[in-house]
Amino acid sequence: MTEYKNIINGKEVESISKRRFENRNPANWEEVVGIFPKSTREDVEEAIQAAKKAYQKWRFVPAPKRAEILRKAAEIMIERKEDLARLMTREMGKILKETRGDVQEGIDTGLYAGGEGRRLFGRTTPSELNNKICYTYHQPLGVWGIISPWNFPIAIPSWKIFPALLTGNTVVFKPATDTPASAYELVKILHEAGVPDGVVNIVFGSGREVGEALLEHPDIAGISFTGSSEVGRRIAEVTGKNLKRCSLELGGKNGQIVLEDADLKLALEGVIWGAFGTTGQRCTATSRLILVEAVYDEFLAMVKERASRIIIGNGLREETEMGPLINEAQRNTVHSYVEIGKGEGAELYYGGEIYQEGECSKGWFYKPTIFIGVRPEMRIAREEIFGPVLSVIKVKDLDEAIEVLNNTSYGLSSSIYTRDVNRAFYAIERIEAGITYVNAPTIGAECHLPFGGVKDTGNGHREGGWTAYEIFTETKTVYIDYSGSLQKAQIDTWEEQ
Ligand code: UN1
Q1: What is the third-level CATH fold of 2-250+458-477?
Q2: Fewest 10 Å CB contacts: which of 45, 214, 424, 493?
Q3: Active-site residue, 3 included
């Protein structure tokens, strides 16, 4: 078992508080993965001051040079992919195939940043006046607070940290308390790759102490957060009041529509992967299956049959298909939603139970769960559960399917299975979600495309792709007048020159 420390200004330091917390394996709660500092406001202060100082140099390192360092970090991640994936499975439970994918998403993001250093395009425009030229370019903001969740312990911090650093910002990173070890490894790799001291600092601890201290600090230029809508609202409130930037990726209640002309086998693989992959703990998870009447009975039977064969267990075994939930509190939440669903009059069609057989007796396992007879107004059809619970809703046609899909306060991901190209485009235009997949599940975002949602899912920013770089930069507008005389915009005309 390893004892970890914060990394501030390139040095490993204990928390001033000397307090610690344990990180346990959700597949076997007897296994302690590591012990981490439970940091305080004072630790955060130290990290912010280090980041503030480092910013003065880092912002002037040419972007292509910053990019080379980030590219090197991605290369180290490629070498260590298997070790990182195994550690991640031990600390958060998802199966090896998925943790390898998580690391790969971090690698992809690092390589993308490596290329972006030689682009970071601004715009050049003509002027209304003669002998005058105008252009824009990107400037960093300063010190960013990065607050990340446990479900993608490397991918999500990478989405935030790589673009923040590439554009010349520095960072104080507070990872989720359930996945501190993966976060620590990422920060170590960045240092090994050559990120200077103080540019990335990691402070472990709770949202209440470390998160709040970051949020309220006057030297923080912005907060990038992925997590619950409740915490997102709090962050938006404080940053709003202080006129600080914040980028929020919040909940989802994603639906998959299956029409009568769909390839049902394909749609089946999609919904099983979307609903039960990562034990349903993705903000992009498929938590609603919207079926048209014509295929309802047939498809439902297929889903139940396949769900009943899902191999539950320790994610380190290659044959396992679904690992545990992250912790006891999450399992209680999932189970309480099952009770809520039953209470609302939905029919529990499969699962709905804690799973403790064999090696699963010491982990937070839960059976894949399917509710049928779900009506759109029920809580299990509207609220994010973050577990392997699928609510099935029957509709008569495509229009009703879209109406039901949109009937939630969230709008992250969505999916439609049909072979009819006309109906696919019709749906794409009407679905209220940041991401729509056609003949693919609601999960599977790629790092070079914008990622984010509408409505309560966020505040309009898009991580991933070129849009991530907009989050972390200010646009500087430059006018250069080489006429040698005073030219007054809107007042002088170009003919007078
Ligand atoms: C998340 O669920 O928080 O598309 C991110 C996907 C992943 C990213 C998910 N590439 O499911």
Answers
A1: Aldehyde Dehydrogenase; Chain A, domain 1 (3.40.605)
A2: 493
A3: no
